[in-house]
Amino acid sequence: MNAPYETVTAAPVDPSALTFRVRMRDGVRLATDVYLPDGTSADDPGPTVLVRLPYDKSGTYAALPLIARYMTRRGYRVAVQDVRGKFRSEGETLLFVNEVHDGHDTLEWITHQAWSDGIVGMWGDSYYGYTQWAAVASGHRALRAIAPRVTGTELGQVVDHHDGTRDVEMGIHLGYMATHYVGPDTYEWEPDPERRPLIAPFEEFFRNLGRRSPSFDISFPRDVRLRRWPEGHPFDHRAIPVLHTVGWYDNCAPWHWRDIEELTSRPDWANQQYLLIDAIDHENYHLAGAPYDDASRDHARSQEAFRTLLPGYLDPALDFFDVFLRRQGSPAELPRVRWRLVHGDEDGFRTDTVWPPAGSTVMTLHPAPDAGAPDGDTPGRLDIVPPADRSTASWVHDPADPVPSAAPNAFAYLQTNPRLHDWSKRGDVLVFDAAPVTAPVDLAGPVSVELSLTTTGPSTDLFAKLLDVHPDGEAELVAHGRVHLDSPVRALTLGLGHVGYRLRAGHRLRLHLHSSDFPEFVLHPGTDDNPWLATEVERTTQRIRLGGPDGARLTLTVAAADR
Questions:
Q1: pLDDT at 376 over 50
Q2: Which one, of 517, 479, 376, 492, lies nearest residue 433 by Cα?
């Protein structure tokens, strides 16, 4: 049976907020709270920071009242709004598609308020990073700068790639729609991953709830993609300054990095782009505090802990807005790139003019067969020199016994910061080890795996994880990537994202290859059935080539040694 659900309704409005019902072009009214700096009257104009989100503008999860009051102490007017159909706002509850026009109409409303000087910036994480890009796509001239965090214009989308591959679907993909986009309220509920077919718990949940999610029904069983950008893609609009905050441990980072790479290729946007890359996950847990076993340090469980993280959370964006909204200082004074080197820069950020950092070089490691490493659980090695002889290596994907996901909540990976040594002992995980390094090696930039793969199934999923193996044998995550292959034979390059990571002396790199990561990602049944509907599964064997021109290779970006 399904676990019971809890209903999350709108929290009381903060008493320090001015409350409004902002009318959209179709007459729908969106609930909006405005916070003014202390001592500022409602007819004293100044720049505004706008936040549009589906997670309750008054609730403790997003903690917008705390955030707004912090921003007002820096002199900003702050407008926070429940998006259409959520919590106190009217209208249909439908994911993504209304944000462009609603963003435009909200910006227009702000410009006509006595407390506004007509200059607006936007800030926020995840979906309320997406609503910033939607406002850019509206073309409204009042929007002067945005600060999207852990997000992307393709957020929540299973992306088809130019090489014929596509993203592996996140397990939360349908779950998010089922719990957040049914109606104004949100529901706390988790599907039972042991149920088959995978869709069964959702149908039972909707029956118990007595209503369905329109966004869910549009996306399943046939993924009908409604138009996100009715006025054209945001990157085709006027370029404005952007401060990207990216997390090394954010499970949504692939969407964000794709945006950054695309914007870098467009000169008008590249000149307006600033990067802040930190050792955080999607829920803003930081590696420096991981794991968060003590509830008093966990900002999801302690308001005092949330207050403690506010300076690091907000000051970079407010400094950015000072330059572009208030014209305090020069853009030249802002670093183009600030990035934290994991295990190398615990006390601060490095700064660069470009990413990857100037002077970086490429290092290639070649998976090769091996009789076994000293720890007895490693079947292969990673060498600078390609193997002299051609061979293959294989693993079996068994949907009845999938490779388990490491973190109980992938969005809050660092809340537990799992160690991954035990995954190397599984027979369905192919493992390759490099030799321990004798001096620190700083990885800074993209990581990829190039290989030729065959499967005995009609299609397969490929997961690759790069690990740091400590001298005591423990292993921690450095980078990861995944892709769905629609054909049984495929040569491909799989990106594992970007890293900023110091491999310390005595540590070694390890590469994992496998075909499941469940329940974080939807389980491939080994057949050509829809994975959400499959009731029968089949084992498949995946094989890669080692050595020769089509042999597998791991490509790393290494920072200059004098950094």
A1: no
A2: 376
